[in-house]
Amino acid sequence: MRLRCHQDIQARVYEELDTIFGDSDRQCTFQDTLEMKYLERVILETLRLFPPVPVIARKLNEEVKIVTGDYILPKGATAIIAQFAAHRSDKYYPNPTVFNPDNFLPEKMQKRHYYAFIPFSAGPRSCVGRKYAMLKLKVLLSTILRNYRVISDVPEKDFVLRADIILKRHDGFKIKIEPRKPVSLI
């Protein structure tokens, strides 16, 4: 999650969570997750820049004519879709390497091609757990961020990524957490 590198964005997430939960220590509900509009945009922008699976491969069961030219992909060929690259296209995202949760404002999403954002794949082979994953991320992150501030001394420009089965930092995620509220020693 990019929050540790973007304290201004983290502050906006805190504002939203404080509006939803106030000083309450109650558990997050489904209704609460529906109100987490800004946190959702932060999650989506993180998935845009750092999709969990950076490349998708599909074996073609039939010939496929490419719409943008007079090309035919033969049956049995493997098509590689690099969503890591697609998500960073300046055709769909102004300043494509800059972390900007406003890329996922509803009016911007409506103008963008459906397949310009596919962190969970798309079409009939799309991840069936997409909605569950988003719900779980909101619950988990809101629970952590209600109580802690996330800090990192490593600037985003210094990230070195490694693509295994999933995309990850080659040196791990070096973060610090500190309580948002003073800790009482009772």
Give a short summary of the structure.
Helix content is 33%, strand content 15%. The protein is of the alpha+beta class. It is elongated and about 70 Å long.
Describe the secondary structure blueprint for this structure.
Blueprint: H1 7-21, H2 30-35, H3 37-49, E1 56-59, E2 64-66, E3 71-73, E4 78-81, H4 83-86, H5 106-111, H6 130-147, E5 148-151, E6 161-163, E7 167-169, E8 176-179
Antiparallel strand pairs: 1-4, 2-3, 5-8, 6-7
Helix pairs in contact: 1-3
Key descriptive features of the protein:
alpha+beta
Structural summary, described in words:
The chain has 186 residues and is an alpha+beta fold. It has a single domain, classed as Cytochrome p450 (Orthogonal Bundle). The chain has 6 helices and 8 strands. The protein has helices at residues 7-21, 30-35, 37-49, 83-86, 106-111, 130-147; strands at 56-59, 64-66, 71-73, 78-81, 148-151, 161-163, 167-169, 176-179. The strands form 4 sheets. A two-stranded antiparallel sheet has the order 1-4. The protein has a two-stranded antiparallel sheet with strand order 2-3. A hairpin with a 3-residue loop joins strand 6 and strand 7. It starts with 6 loop residues before the first helix and ends in a 7-residue tail after the last strand.
